[in-house]
Amino acid sequence: MKKVLISIFVILTCTLIPTELLSCTSVIISGKATKDGRPLMWKNTDTQNMNHRLIYSDFRGYPLIGIVRSDATDETRASIWIGTNSQGFSIMNTMSYNLTQESIGTNNGALMRRALEVCKNVTEFKHYLDTLRRPMKVSANYGVIDAEGNAAYFETYSDGYHMVDVNDQSNAPNGYLVYTNFSYNGKYDAGQGYIRYQTANDIFAKGAPEKLFSPQWIINNLSRSFYHSLTGVDLRSNEALSLFKNGLFPDSDFIPRRITANACVIQGVKKGENPELTTFWAVLGYPPCSIAIPAWVKAANNNSYLLKKSDDSYNSPMCDKALAIKSNVFAITRGNGDKYLNFNKLFNAEGTGYIQLIEPVEEKIFEISNRKIDQWRKTGIILSDMNSLTKEIASLIEKNFPEK
Questions:
Q1: Coil vs helix vs strand at 43
Q2: What's this model's pTM, rounded to 2 decimal places?
Q3: Separation of alpha carbons 104 and 133, rounded Å
């Protein structure tokens, strides 16, 4: 009990520190370390703008899909925060706060947009960075994978970059690298996200020996994790559920936070496979209150309407649904009340929390989707199947999503 009380004190102290920067948690996992031999990249996006949607664009260069802010009305030029293109090249970023004295990120999303339009693989992305005019006005850890098995982070600042190869065992002895908001080659002890970094590493270390890594495993175990590596508290444990009976708990340095706007996992392909089978799993809105939906560049306009802008708004219906029930999790709005989450709304001993209601629906979505994807790997992509699958998934969500 004493240890738990000390833990609570530490977290309460943390909540007094302004940490709501542009902060994200990410990982790249080499195909050598995954369950099925295909590379994975994951990004948990923390930002002040909660509304995001998926877009498809073939405006110039390679066709692509990616996540944009919902206030981006011009989809032909909108900055992209994680995405993939028709060649199987995928990119994401986390802000870095220790590469330079001034963290400049004004071009982070625009750079990723252009990279998706012009780059076929990691080699071409490296060349793209080499040819950009300096200063680049970026400060980011760019994570990239391609259809040729390459995987790397580029710790990029205005005047250059450091490339960190995830397939190199000296960089990634366990086959994966976690990045938050500092760079390995940046100033030591500067930056942000060290607690989230340790939390993610602790969780990935548990899955590494058995190669448990898959999109579903990452979303369940990372994007909806309420384990805190600094204090040792796991809110989903029986001990925590019995101790914090009113459900209220400070929201500080968990992987999902009040400012988490989405979580996305991109599953790449094995070398020689059709790059158009690269699958983009999007969890729009606060991940503990949302559901993963797959999308493909090949599907273009047949991707789920729940991910794209609605008929009367630039918001995605899925994001709106998730944010509606999130409002019950962060229901206190006066004073410092918004820094407390009602964890009982997410997870409780009765099994009625949003996470507990959502995960069985999502389990079914992964089951039917993975069955189809396995079939397409053997027979080739069937567009009518993609269309039918997205309709089936949308119907499952509409019928089973928790009420506010």
A1: strand
A2: 0.95
A3: 15
C-alpha–C-alpha distance, residues 268 and 296, integer Å: 11
Q: Measuring CA to CA, how many Å separate 380 from each of 20, 276, 277, 374, 385? A: 44, 10, 9, 10, 11
Task: Kindly report, residue by residue over 281-316, the tens digit of the pLDDT.
Answer: 999 999 999 999 999 999 998 999 999 999 999 999
Q: Which residue has the tokens 């259809």?
A: 147
**Residue 333: helix, strand or coil by DSSP?**
coil
Closest by CA to 278, choosing from 54, 118, 89, is 89
Are residues 307 and 75 in contact, defined by beta-carbon separation less than 8 angstroms?
no
Mention every residue, 6+ apart, whose C-beta is less than 8 A from residue 117.
59, 60, 61, 62, 64, 85
Element (H, E) at 123: helix 122-131
404 exposure class (CB count in 10 Å sphere: 0-12, 13-18, 19+) = exposed
Q: What architecture is domain 2-400?
A: 4-Layer Sandwich (3.60)
Residue type, 273: E
d(CA 172, CA 159): 26
Predicted confidence at residue 129, as pLDDT, reads 98
Residue 350: partners with Cβ closer than 8 Å, 6 or more residues away: none
CA of residue 208 relative to chain centroid, distance: 19
Short-list 40, 25, 49, CA closest to 141 = 25
Q: Domains of the chain: which residue ranges?
A: 2-400
pLDDT tens track for 309-347:
999 999 999 999 999 999 999 999 999 999 999 999 999
CA angle 196, 199, 201 (to 5 degrees): 110
